[in-house]
Write a structure and sequence with these properties.
Elements (H helix, E strand, L loop, with lengths): L3 H15 L7 E11 L4 E9 L11 H10 L7 E14 L6 E14 L3 E13 L2 E4 L16 E3 L6 E7 L4 H29 L3 H26 L7 E7 L2
Antiparallel strand pairs: 1-2, 1-5, 3-4, 6-9, 7-8, 8-9
Length: about 240
């Protein structure tokens, strides 16, 4: 059972994030080419929120290098980036539309002193409210191209998840059962608390409201803990966490 208020909140924010609304929640997946002092070429990728990076800065080598330098830990002489940018296409819940989400793999670094020049190759506009997890190496992108055998859609309070199981195993079946059982327990508790709120007043009413808020806030953490069990399985998770 997916309770209506959580489902409505998540879907409303998801539609906002996936439309072409350029707001504070958008950013850029940026691919670049560095030519080193030894005339070697290095291709890299990083993500930066739109608030911190303007397309107008893409031709300014100093600005790009400064962003790469401060992107992670602020070490002044080292650029931090990723070796691979991957993508994953998945259908909407009604299978009418499809969405594209990106991810970054294999962190890398390069001394700033080794850089002769840097060039932006392309920039992909994408919301940072939606992210990809599951593939851990570039080799994993082979099985992600095959259709998923099963899809799950647990919905929390601030986060919702599209889980695409590309190979059903006893482990994935066990996790699916855990998610269903957890959701049923939370739904039962929520219905009970809402009924108590509606039919009480005073201290009892306030305590029920506090318990309901605690229950709701715990839901995302509980789902996240269960999803960690997918580690090592051929599973892709598209996560969306709202405002």
């Amino acid at each position: 059972m997916k309770l209506f208020f959580r489902h409505t909140l998540s879907m409303a924010c998801l539609l906002l994030a996936l439309t072409e609304v350029h707001a504070e929640y958008n950013g850029w997946y940026i691919s670049f080419k560095i030519t080193t002092q030894k005339h070697q070429e290095v291709i890299g990728h990083f993500y930066m929120a739109e608030h911190y990076f303007s397309p107008d800065s893409s031709t300014n080598q100093h600005a790009v290098l400064r962003i790469l330098d401060a992107h992670w830990d602020g070490i002044n002489d080292t650029l931090q980036f990723f070796n691979h940018r991957i993508s994953y296409t998945y259908p909407s819940s009604d299978s009418i539309d499809s969405y594209l989400v990106y991810g970054l793999l294999d962190s890398a670094s390069l001394l700033l002193s080794a850089v002769k020049s840097i060039e932006i190759l392309d920039m992909v506009d994408a919301s940072y409210l939606v992210w990809l997890s599951g593939p851990r190496t570039i080799a994993d992108t082979i099985w992600t191209q095959k259709p998923a055998e099963m899809r799950l859609n647990p919905i929390g309070y601030l986060c919702s998840y599209d889980i695409f199981i590309h190979e059903v195993t006893p482990t994935t079946d066990k996790i699916a059962a855990e998610l269903a059982a957890m959701e049923a327990v939370y739904a039962e508790k929520e219905i009970s608390l809402r009924d108590e709120i509606e039919n009480s007043d005073g201290e009892v009413h306030r305590e029920a409201e506090e318990q309901l808020m605690m229950l709701i806030e715990q839901l995302d953490e509980e789902i996240g803990n269960i999803l960690e069990e997918y580690s090592g399985e051929k599973v892709v998770i598209v996560s969306f966490c709202s405002c």
